[in-house]
Amino acid sequence: MSSRRPDQAVWLFAGPMVALDVVYLFVPSTHDPILIVLPALAAVAALIGVLRQRPRPGWPWWLVVGALGTAALSGLLHIVGDGWFLRGRASPDPYGVTVLATLLLAVAALAAFAYLRQPGARTWIIDTVLIGGIALLLGWLIVVVPTFGAGFTAWQKTMQVVLPFCGAVLIALAAPLVRRRGTVSASAVLLAAGAVAALVTIALFVVGQVRDISAVSRPYFWWHLFCIAWAAAALDGSMKAVAVPLPAPSRQRHPMLWALAVVVLGFAGPIIAIAQYLQEEPEDYNNWLLLITVVLFVLVLGRFGATVASTARERHSRVERELARDARDAVLVADTAGFIVSASGPAARLLGVEDLVGHVVSEFLEPGQSSRVLAAIRRTSAGTDLDDWPMRLRLTAPAAANPHPDVDALCRILPHRSPVPGAVVLTLRDVSDEARSEQDLRLLSRYDPLTGLSNLSTLRDRLDRALREAGTGPVTLALLEVEGMRAVNAGRGRAVGDQVLRAVARRLEVAAPGAAVARVGGDEFAVLWAPPLRRTAPDAVLPAVRAVLTQTVPTDGGPVDVRLSLGTASTEHGPADGAYALLARADQALESARGAARHPAAAGTAPGPPTDLRSRLDAVLASGELEVRYQPVVDLRTRQVRSFEALVRWPESAGGPIGPDVLIPFAEETGQIVQIGAYMLRAALASVTGWNRDRAAADRVGVAVNVSAQQLGAGFPALVEKALADSGAEPSDLVLEVTESTVVSRTDLAARESLVRIRQAGVRVAIDDFGTGYSALRYLAELPADIVKIDKSFTDRLPESARMAALVQGIVQIADRLGLDTVAEGVETSAQAAELHRLGCRKGQGYLFARPLVLDAAVALLAEAS
Predict the structure, then answer these.
(1) Contact present, 813 and 434 (Cβ < 8 Å)
(2) How confident is the model over 824-846, as a mean pLDDT?
(3) Which of 155, 167, 140, 164 is nearest to 86 (CA)?
(4) Contact criterion met (CB below 8 Å) for 636 and 825
(5) Could you give phi then psi for residue 577, rounded to 5 degrees?
(6) Rg (alpha carbons) of the chain, rounded to whole number
(7) What is the pLDDT of residues 663-709, one digit of tens each?
(8) Helices (H), 408-473
């Protein structure tokens, strides 16, 4: 153990005061003035120290100031009374009362410091006080009592018993102040030294009375040292740390043996005292001793009961510690001020500190979080508010393996009887990987991972916003397709194809300043000119776009010639009903440009809105001409077909091709998606009934139908149940695919309730395009779903991207733990299929296995597989 050197103010005070005390010892003529002045100066110095340092909590230090104040008053009363308290008074005299008050205040101050510094060590403090009192009693009975003469008053006998006991208790309480590994504050050392000086004073007083010694200069010399030491402790800058909680003392190796030793010693003194009391004539002196022995009996019995109870708690807490050591989560026990009093092994590894006890929770929090967390801990400890938790926190642990981990924090009141008042348990779960995955998913839901451009979802949001603000100027949308990319990927490799797409993205950003550029498909891009970012007219920019994009692109596989088809639509040619309507017009223009694309820059323009599309769709629905295609979902290990996804297609007989990426959004915008959904549900169930008619239960295949959020009203479950009954299909044969945003949205409660009811009927629910919506992995446990379909944007980057592989593996592992099946969409190469299987994904769907098939082709595929 080492101690910090006292401050300069301590030396400036203590040096002259000790010199004055030496003068008092050797110059008798100075006794009276020094006896008054020195304790008074000590009291004033302590008062100045407390006011200047302002410790928190401050009440123990005010007890110190009170003790020194009564000591100064006792000196004055000694001079006025012309005698000392052990002589000449049959009743309590003011001088003796002030001395006793000084010692009692000193005991209270040290007890307060021990209580605040080591809240978990109160049993050890009680043991120390007990053993000190027992040793004092034994010594008094064996050594002092036989030498006593007659003639002592009841007050003197009372003081003979009480004062030594106070001295022993002072020493017992001072021990915890310096009983600590490492550095001990100078203020604590001075308090302990003052306690020793007080005990020496008491011993000299009592021995002086017993031996009839009248010289009292030596006792008062030590009394002055007590005053000087305690005043210096209040002046030192380290006095604020005296009341700060310290790590709990090490657990006793043999608590029952320790308790037995305390009990044996405890009973020894009282038994001797009682025996002596019974053998001799009862006197008031012996009556005091009898009272003390009874008190010790009670304390010893209480201590033994506490030891038995603490042993049981220790056995229980040992089990808890073993569990905590093996637990994945970090566990901290903290008091209401945030000081850590216990920590699990995972907590030390998470925070990068081997011994966390004594640290403050706020040390490991980012700025701005400390006050919020500490306030929440206090509210939890008081039981007034439990709504603060769980809480997502960012830690600052530079010594840890992960220097800035994200954690989910839970807080609860410490169970069982705790040695720390108001202690709480903080459970920290490292969710850094999950947070990074969620961040990656959020980025993927808004941006294209290959080019860094906005994706179709972001473009739609910007287009909606631009159309709402179209009063400030026209909105123009251009769709561009880089032709021949499939040939580039097949002939030169996907890496070369990726280089071409990245080059096109950079050229678009340069050629169309002030426009929003997005990648909306595998080889399709979009450029949006809209206020207030529109700085250049599209008609002036489009020729430059064509010229730049048709230039040769240098790649690692050699130069690649780029061919381009381009279609535009603008509100200048007529208003648009919404984002999907303008996209449909631009897509029609692009489709016409594809037909004429025999040179590097063929372009088409849609002069006005497709006013007949709604009526054409109504006619197709009424005639039942909508076509259904079935794309197989296969087992990635065995390549066996497990189910099909039913996909809607515009019939060629209805004129002008309309792709599903235009048809579905347009139908959702017009509300016709509800009719399309009902049509697809009936057609798919009729097909799956035919497929499974002669199949064994183990070989049954299912069918998945996409469901729009608009369909998920209160009547949708009844619609599904009726369709199942009409077709004769089993509920387990049907899978309803809904988008991630549909099931995660907290505002669309009707949709969630519909899905819950449908699942209760035995129909399975799949989350489609997972990773492109809310992208929160923690929502998976809450969703009414059975299957997670991993979006094609993830599959596209496999197996080249290690980060994407880690992200897919994380999704699969979480889904597995939650009992959810996983299906990867957009599988186009054998390498992708192998990587997905390695990452734990069970099923896949994509062009590698089959394009969307007409019903007869799907039946043939099943027959071939069987």
Answers:
(1) no
(2) 94
(3) 155
(4) no
(5) -75, -15
(6) 43
(7) 887 787 778 888 999 999 999 999 999 999 888 888 899 999 999 88
(8) 432-446, 456-468
